[in-house]
Structure formats: C-alpha cells, structure tokens
Specification:
Blueprint lengths: L1 H16 L19 H14 L4 H7 L3 H11 L2 H4 L13 H10 L32
Helix pairs in contact: 2-3, 2-4, 3-4
Amino acid sequence: MIAELVAEIGPLWHEQHQDRYSPPVHVGAGAEHKLVFVDRLLAALVHLRHGVTHDVPACWFGVDRSTITRAIGEIRPLPTQRGCIIAPGLRLRTLAELVDHVGENEMAAIINGTEIRVRRPTAGRKDRDKVHLRQQ
C-alpha cells in the first residue's frame, strides 16, 4: 500500500519541488535536507492518521519539529491533486449522504474513521445527542 502511494504521489512531489531540493551549484553549498520523500510521506501519514503532534515524528526521524511541519505541509495537498476531493460547496452531513454521493457519481471512496475528540454541548441541550461528521 505504501509503495503504491509513493508511486502515485512521489512524481507530483518531485515535480513541485525539483528546483527546491535539487543539488546546489557548488558541492557542499546550501542546506542539507534530512528527510527524503518517503520519510516526509510517512511523517505526514502518521500525523494525519493518528493525530500525533509534529514533535513525535520529529523525534522518530531525528529532525526539528519545523522540518516535520514543512514536510506535512508539502505532502498534505498532494492527494487532492490526484482527484481525491469533494467539490467546493458540497456539504455531506451524514454517512448516508456520503454513500449516496459516491454511488451517484460512480466514485470510490476511503472513509477515515479516526475518532476526533470534540466538545459536546452541555447537558440538557436539545441537540446534545446529534451526530456530526467532521469534514476535512
């Protein structure tokens, strides 16, 4: 699965960052980039899937938190460039609406079922028991 994702997203990332991460004109000149594309992808996936702070992958890869922040910022928009996006203005409020939308448009979908903690309305409010889906 990771190899397929690298094969699909890797060329997009390399195309966008070819100038930025190409070797400097003079050997030894310029910043040394410690994270290759696959490391950047893994850091972003771990952050997005498990909701860990940027400090966790920074510790794993032995780089500064700002490096991970930059890496996640570079990787995060790439899936939308492959066509994984919900059209602007479309609001899917329930799982049933999402399933209907996917079926009507003959699309395939991956649903992220990661639990995200949210504040509930105070006890006694009429809308306390409503279920809300969070769009990302």
